[in-house]
Specification:
The chain has a nine-stranded mixed sheet, sandwiched between helices. The chain is an alpha/beta fold. The protein has a single domain, classed as Ribokinase (UDP-N-acetylmuramoyl-L-alanine:D-glutamate ligase, 3-Layer(aba) Sandwich). The relative contact order is 0.16. The radius of gyration is 18 Å and the shape is globular. The termini are far apart. Helix 1 packs across helix 5. The protein is built from seven helices and 13 strands.
Length: 281
């Protein structure tokens, strides 16, 4: 059985780093700039691949330069692209992101599409299916529900119509939605809430607690939440206890903040193991 299928949005992000946001009519010189692939499920897929997990991505991209950039990036990262749909009728989602160095904030403008990929014929081979908001719609369209051959995980950043925590084995909402993990008892699932620099809350119905965020130098927090969720799913594949799984996810997300984009700083499995071993000494 293959391990993880990620389903959701893939974007191309043009990212600029500034010391601080400009005021009205002020010109600011960028400190750095880069272009990267983004999207919650896509970034999670790259994270899983970096950590040595066999992972596929299901998404829709356009037959354009941005789509080709996404496709090549995924292949170079070791993400299986057999379920990436190239649709000439859509324009690949793209974003312009300004990261403020002094304010640790960002402005994001994305031009998304609402196309849902076709249900993979080999979907029964996956151990976990991890989705974002778009992936949530795909699962409903495909008729995939909890209790099937694959366990379901969701990274959800804002309240979405039709969202039900009990539909997922691993429910990972933003603190913008809730900070209450006690629904895990009722829904018999794992609930993990990332709170950025404050760390993460967790409950699996048997134990609950919090894990502090990694104390490290931060260049940009862009994509850190998506990385967190990818690493959290990796820890489930490794059958880690919930507290250790959240520690792993916090560590991987924290290390990813070394990069301006949401992916270049993601550690490999060897780098993660070395870092955790050093911390335990």
């Amino acid at each position: 059985m293959s391990q993880v299928l990620c389903v959701g949005v893939a974007t191309v992000d043009n990212i600029v780093l500034v010391e601080k946001y400009p005021s009205a009519n002020q010109r600011v010189v960028a400190l750095d700039s880069t272009r990267a692939v983004g999207g919650p499920a896509t970034t999670a897929a790259v994270t899983l691949a970096r950590l040595g997990i066999e992972v596929s991505l299901s998404c829709v991209i356009g037959d354009d330069e941005e789509g080709r950039f996404i496709f090549e990036t995924l292949k170079n990262e070791g993400v299986d692209t057999s379920h990436v749909v190239v649709d000439a009728s859509v324009r690949t989602a793209r974003g312009t992101i300004v990261v403020s160095k002094s304010e640790q904030s960002r402005a994001i403008m994305v031009m998304p599409h609402d196309q849902i990929p076709k249900k993979p014929l080999d979907i029964s081979k996956y151990q976990w299916i991890h989705v974002d908001q778009a992936g949530m719609r795909a699962l409903k369209t495909w008729g995939i529900s909890r209790g099937g051959s694959a366990k379901l995980s969701i990274d959800i950043g804002y309240a979405t119509e039709g969202l039900n925590p009990g539909d997922y084995d691993l429910y990972a909402p933003s603190e913008n939605i809730t900070t209450d993990t006690t629904s895990a008892v009722k829904d018999k699932n794992i609930v993990v809430i990332s709170q950025g620099e404050k760390g993460s809350l967790y409950c699996d119905g048997l134990s609950s607690g919090s894990v502090p965020a990694l104390n490290t130098e931060i260049l940009s927090t862009l994509g850190a939440g998506d990385v967190f969720h990818g690493a959290l799913v990796a820890a489930q594949v490794w059958n880690k206890e919930i507290s250790e799984a959240v520690l792993i996810a916090n560590t991987v997300a924290g290390l990813s903040c070394r990069g301006l984009d949401g992916q270049s700083g993601i550690p490999s499995k060897n780098e993660l193991d070395a870092y955790l071993a050093k911390v335990k000494i």
